[in-house]
Amino acid sequence: MEETKIVVIGGGGVGKSAMTIRFLQNYFVTDYDPTIEESYRKQILVDNNPVLLDVLDTAGQEEYSAMREQYMESGEGFLIVYSIADNGSFEEVPELYQTVLRVKDSEKYPIVICGNKCDLEKSREVTLNEGKSVAKSYQVPFYETSAKTMKNLESVFHEIVREIRKIQTPKKKRSKCSIL
C-alpha cells in the first residue's frame, strides 16, 4: 500500500491541528492548545487507491521555528495553512513556501495552500482572490477550508496526495526500468 508523509505547516492559531484532527478523526477541536509536534496515521482512498496518510501536525509558534526545517526534511508533501481571519498568518505563506523549496533543494514541490477558517466570514482579513493569487504565482493548488464545517478538508488532503503522486510516478517508472 502507498504510504504518504504530509506535513501541515503555518503560523500559530491558524487551525492546523483542528484541520488535521477533524479530517482524520472527525472531531472538531474547540480549545486552542499550541502543538509542538503530533503525528497521525489513517488509511483513506484517493481516486480509488488506498493510501496510508502519515500526517505531521507542526508547531506554528515562532519559538519553535528552528524545528520547522527538521519537520520539512521528512515530508513528501506540504499543506501551508493560514487563517482567512488573520492577515499576519497569510503574510507568512511566502516564507514558508520558500523554506520548503530550500530544505527540499527543489524548484517545485508538492504543496497545497489552505486558507482556513472560511466559516469566519465576518472576521475575514484575507480575500479569496488574495489566496488564489498567491497559489497561482507558485503554481500550486489552493483551497479555502473550515475545520468547523469540514468544508474542503477531504479535498485538501486528497489534493496533496495527488500532487505527491505527480512527482513520484516518474521516479517509480524509472526505478523499474533500471532493474531490467
UniProtKB/TrEMBL annotation:
Domain of life according to the entry: Eukaryota
Cross-referenced PROSITE patterns: RAB, RAS, RHO
SMART domains according to UniProt: RAB (SM00175), RAN (SM00176), RAS (SM00173), RHO (SM00174)
Keywords annotated in UniProt: GTP-binding, Nucleotide-binding
Keyword Cell membrane: no
PANTHER family in alphabetical order: RAS, DI-RAS, AND RHEB FAMILY MEMBERS OF SMALL GTPASE SUPERFAMILY
Family annotation (NCBIfam families): small_GTP
Protein name as it appears in the record: Ras-like protein
